[in-house]
Amino acid sequence: MPRVSREKVRTVYNDLDNMWGADRWHAHTKAWLDHFLAKHALLSRTAPIVLHVGSAGTDYGVKGGFTCHIDVAEKKLAGVVGAIVGDVHSLPIAPGTVDLCTCVGSVLNYCDAVISLLELAAVVKPGGHLLIEFESSDSWEYIATPVYGLGVTSTLTFYSADPDCRLWVYSSRFIKDILVGRGFVVRDESRAHIVSSMVYRITKNERLAASFAVMDKIARRIPFLRRGASNIILLCQRLP
Fold first, then answer.
1. pTM of the model
2. Using one digit for the tens of pLDDT, what is the confidence trace for 200-215?
3. Given 6, 53, 110, 153, which is the most exposed site by the fewest CB atoms within 10 A?
């Protein structure tokens, strides 16, 4: 499947002061990610090697004995110890050497998910963990559109730093099937922008919809509602 232009991604993120943008929607996404990663902080504290892919030099408080960052936006890696300019489609990391790998911030939505997940899976040790976050085609944002529920498809979406933001979105089942096929099991999962994605579908007002993100804590407890989350994060473990 075609990839979002690497040069476009590099240019957009090199020029950003805040890769999360300056809007409430993405501020909520960042807070949700921080909370989930903090919940599993013990994994990083006991991990000899941690790899952050597409991190722009941000470790989210997840640090191991040795922490490495890989990103295409070289300016974001300036001064970052253990940083490598590289691409998730071809990781310059030896197979089976990483104890904990993260790929969050919807990095996967800019990429060929099949190739990227195979690369990420390969570098994780047996018994090691992978944290992967992505924007989902199962989101209420896409209900009653041709995008809704497809395993993989591209779509225009909103991001304040990129007025013409076209990403790949994936169904939860599509991503999980690839990971299971590579010997991983899902140990934990969280979802964000549940009611807010529904409000955005109705109103197309990002600012208004973002105000409903506070309802995530309740909506996650309701199976029918949570399946329409915009963002999903998975903690997966590679079986020995």
1. 0.93
2. 999 999 899 999 999 9
3. 6
